[in-house]
Design brief:
By secondary structure, the chain is α/β, with parallel strands linked by helices. It has 13 helices and 16 strands.
């Protein structure tokens, strides 16, 4: 099947919600109320006792029915405004063309916005549109795969960046986060889409933006080579300076990237005061941006979309799994393992029976004799849950492991203490969710929308900018569910 056919047939699937454990029926336990003293001898029930018991049961039943009716009829009614049929996009007042500024705060786990006073972020939320329970990243929930999915609308198997670091199985070439050869970067990112249609884009850091590809030549002054030492305030001020250009030179699409709070999250986990400080700093940067746009009289004209690439979860040395502990069932040499955590990957040499490797590894992991073994399950990549969309590329190793939340894999036991934070796990884990906050002429004010996967963002942005998008894994109808129609 040719690549375009694959893109056209690959459709995102909704991540299923976790069902309650059927063995735990809270309603039953609440109704199983006994007022008898267990230490007293059994007595024959009297008519009065039976009457009182029946009356009590009737009252409980009526109360339960009333509560159920309330929940039933209130279901679907949101406590927050939603897009109404008579609402339309607000007209631009100063700019003569739409502008989208896409901001990424790396590792901004959903919920961080409530860890400290964040008046500027909450200003965007109150007057814009928010994914009410967060943005769902793609699997694996790592920085480079997710950033590139956001700007291409493609799952990693289709845009080619399947991990932060990986090996081309055909050539042996190694991809790293400093790789700018276009052979690695498939699909069509937003800056290339705009260039294809004669529009301008600027990128103040974003994975893939330095890659010269198609019509995009990484223009000097509008495509910043990555340099993590550049102060965040300088990045904001540079983006603001683009709005001082003549109107026809202002880029239609801009990116802005901050490494925090991911940096702190890896060091101390998601619940440390350092995270609160980092989130407060990010909020101050958003305030600096808003203030600069207001001084220019264009805040209401510019579409600001603030996202993260993934969440964060705490890890510690007590949550480790060692591959050497599987030696009784199968030996996994280190040279078979291109990646340990959080996406354990196995690429045995030619001639090794892959199914047998998976079976023996799982036998050992489920035996109860491998420390933490039940928190890792191995798959042939084609047998991974289809909702992960993580099998359709030869760059993905043939055997992939799915780890329990916060667990890590290593080759052998060490004495190192490894408490901190990590991401990359199953995107069904709520801890991996991040934020989607959008403010602009085509976003309703104070609107909450259900969570969605970040591959939908590409089509949202092309819709705002009125440009045809490239084939992608997002759904063409999605923008209509989140954007106000044009007047």
């Amino acid at each position: 099947m040719d690549p375009e056919s694959v893109l056209n047939t690959a459709k995102p699937t909704q991540i299923p919600t976790r069902e309650e454990d059927p063995s735990s029926n809270q309603s039953t336990s609440l109704l199983s109320l006994s007022t008898e003293d267990p230490s007293s001898p059994p007595q024959k029930p009297t008519t009065t006792i039976i009457f009182i018991a029946l009356l009590l049961v009737t009252c409980v039943a009526l109360s339960a029915a009333s509560a159920f009716a309330f929940l039933f009829f209130s279901a679907g009614k949101s406590a927050h405004p939603s897009i109404k049929e008579d609402q339309t996009a607000r007209p631009l007042t100063k700019l003569d063309h739409p502008v989208v500024l896409l901001i990424s705060s790396d590792g901004f786990r959903f919920g961080y916005q409530h860890k400290a006073p964040t008046p500027n972020i909450h200003r965007l939320i109150a007057n814009g549109t928010e994914a009410e329970t967060g943005l769902i990243p793609v699997f694996p929930t790592l920085t480079f795969p997710n950033h590139y999915s956001i700007v291409t609308g493609l799952y990693p198997a289709y845009h080619g960046i399947i991990n932060n670091k990986f090996v081309d199985p055909r050539t042996g070439a190694v991809f790293s986060m400093a790789s700018h050869d276009p052979k690695w970067w498939l699909g069509e990112p937003l800056w290339e889409t705009l260039a294809n249609h004669g529009l301008k884009a600027s990128t103040y850091f974003w994975p893939g933006s330095e890659v010269i590809k198609g019509s995009w030549d990484c223009p000097k002054g509008f495509c910043m080579p990555y340099n993590e030492s550049v102060p965040f305030e300088d990045r904001v001020d540079t983006v603001l300076s683009y709005f001082d250009l003549p109107s026809n030179e202002i880029p239609e699409f801009m990116t802005l990237y901050f490494e925090d709070p991911d940096h702190q999250g890896h060091l101390v986990g998601p619940d440390d005061p350092q995270i609160t400080e980092a989130v407060t700093h990010i909020d101050g940067l958003i305030g600096r941006l808003i203030s600069g746009l207001e001084k220019r009289g264009i805040f209401e004209d510019v579409t600001i979309i603030m996202v993260g690439d993934h969440g964060m979860v705490g890890t510690c040395d007590k949550k480790l799994i060692f591959l050497d502990d599987l030696a009784k069932w199968i030996k996994i040499p280190a040279e078979w393992v291109p990646y340990y955590t959080p996406v354990p990957s196995i690429r045995p040499p030619a001639g090794v029976n892959l199914s047998e490797v998976v079976a023996k590894m799982n036998e050992g992991l489920q035996s109860g004799k491998v420390k933490n073994g039940k928190n890792l399950k191995m798959y042939l990549k084609e047998d991974l849950p289809s909702r992960l969309h993580y099998s359709g590329s030869e760059r993905i190793p043939p055997i992939i492991g799915m780890l329990g939340e916060g667990f890590k894999v290593e080759q052998k036991s060490t004495t190192a203490q490894e408490c901190g934070g990590a991401h990359g796990y199953d995107n069904a884990f709520f801890s991996m969710r991040t934020i989607f906050i959008a403010h602009g002429p085509q976003f309703g004010r104070g609107v909450k929308v259900p969570s969605f996967e970040n591959v939908q963002i590409y089509n949202v942005i092309t819709s705002i900018l009125n440009v045809p998008g490239a084939p992608n894994n997002g759904t063409s109808s999605f923008p209509r569910s989140i954007l106000l129609p044009k007047a």
